[in-house]
Each structure stands twice: as C-alpha cells, then as structure tokens.
Amino acid sequence: TQLLEQSPQFLSIQEGENLTVYCNSSSVFSSLQWYRQEPGEGPVLLVTVVTGGEVKKLKRLTFQFGDARKDSSLHITAAQPGDTGLYLCAGADAGTEKDNRKLIWGLGTSLAVNP
Amino acid sequence: ETGVTQTPRHLVMGMTNKKSLKCEQHLGHNAMYWYKQSAKKPLELMFVYSLEERVENNSVPSRFSPECPNSSHLFLHLHTLQPEDSALYLCASSPRHSGRAGNIQYFGAGTRLSVL
C-alpha cells in the first residue's frame, strides 16, 4: 500500500519566519502535486514536480522533488498570514490512465501564520 | 473561483432522510470525482467518472449513490446515512491525462455534511 507521510502535522509561526514542510514515502512516484486548502474551500493546486531532483519556485514558495522521487519538500520564505492553510501533497503513479486518476494523498500540514 | 461549483455548501440531515449533493464544472474536463475529507484521514476517493462512465468505485457503501448525467454534472445521492458519514464532501474534475504529471484535480469548495 502506498502511503504519503507529511510532517509536521501542525505548524504555528510568526509572520516573516521561514519554514519547511515535508512529504515522504517509501514508494516511488512519477510525480507529486502540492495543494493548499484554505478554510471553507477545496484544495487548489500549487505545483507539480515530475523529475527527480527538480526544484520549482512560486514566488516565496520553493518545491523540491527528491532524487529518488520518493519525497518532496516545500519551503516558504518570509511567511505571511495569507499563507495560512492546509498544505497537501499527492502522489501519482503513472502507468495507465486509470493509475493516474488515483492520487495518493497525505494527511497534510496545517499551517498558521500569525501577524 | 475554480470553475467547479458545489451545492449545497452545508447540509444537516437525519439518518432517515434522502438528499443529494450537486457538482457542476465549467472547465470542459472529461473526468469527475467525489472525495470524502474527514479529520485525521487522507482524502478518500469515492467515485470517478470518465466521459460519464463510472470507472472507479472504492468500496463505498451503497447508501452513497453517484450519478453523472453528462460530463459537466455530477450528483451524489444520499440515503439512510450514519453519523460517521459526517464529513466534507469534495467534488473535483480533471482534464484527460497526458504525461507523467498525473491528473491535476480542480476542486469545488465542498459540502459540509452533518448526519444527526
């Protein structure tokens, strides 16, 4: 059974601090997707990483895919209250089209950025 | 606005009631999904429809009955639910898969369901 473990589960920081959250698995994925879910809303895609070792930047957010494609990290620089939300990672096991529809989801990291 | 609209946003129902959740997508996608989101559990995939054909049913109890009349609309019919079915029910859509990136999910805001 494929599992994705996210850590930490909860994180409360002050505005302006930096943070890193992790998404780990013992399984290899063809890609990992990162989503942010704000209270009262559905998850929204932030980024997809596909190549082992890949680094993608989205403003103050930096995403990295592990060389072995088993893990990923999200680093936020100078966090702002607007970054508050649940950060979810989801792994895809590309094989058939059917496989790609079934993402493996982590539990998420709940981030609170205090003004 | 994600292009996926769910109604109602909140629903309280008794165990003997029958209700339906509605999802509509305006993105031209050909796959639609129902997920259940509960505290302390990963997102649980319930059903997948591709081109209006159900292609995935993850051992969901029969008290949940999906319906996909066309590629833009998806319903989840509920009857004789249990209190443990209380959760956030999310609808998502995705374009046809290509490449290794996996099917990107576009979610609605969800229906918060409470079963009394």
Tell me what you see in this structure.
The complex is a heterodimer of chains A (115) and B (116). Chain A is mostly beta strands. In chain A, the strands form two sheets. In chain A, strands 2, 4, 5, 9, 10 and 11 form a six-stranded mixed sheet that branches. Chain A has a five-stranded antiparallel sheet with strand order 1-3-8-7-6, with no helix packed on it. In chain A, a hairpin with a 6-residue loop joins strand 4 and strand 5. Chain A starts with a strand and ends with a strand. Helix content of chain B is 0%, strand content 55%. In chain B, a hairpin with a 2-residue loop joins strand 5 and strand 6. The termini of chain B are far apart. The relative contact order of chain B is 0.34. The model of chain B has no long low-confidence stretch (mean pLDDT 90). Classes of the chains: A mainly beta (115), B mainly beta (116). At the A-B interface, strand 4, strand 5, strand 9, helix 1 and strand 10 of A face strand 5, strand 9 and strand 10 of B.
Q: What layout of secondary structure does this protein have?
A:
The complex is a heterodimer of chains A (about 120) and B (about 120).
Chain A: E1 5-7, E2 10-14, E3 19-24, E4 31-37, E5 44-49, E6 55-58, E7 61-65, E8 71-76, E9 85-92, H1 97-101, E10 104-105, E11 109-114
Parallel strand pairs in A: 2-11
Antiparallel strand pairs in A: 1-3, 3-8, 4-5, 4-9, 6-7, 7-8, 9-10, 9-11
Chain B: E1 4-7, E2 10-13, E3 18-25, E4 31-37, E5 44-50, E6 53-57, E7 64-70, E8 73-79, E9 87-94, E10 106-107, E11 111-115
Parallel strand pairs in B: 2-11
Antiparallel strand pairs in B: 1-3, 3-8, 4-5, 4-9, 5-6, 7-8, 9-10, 9-11
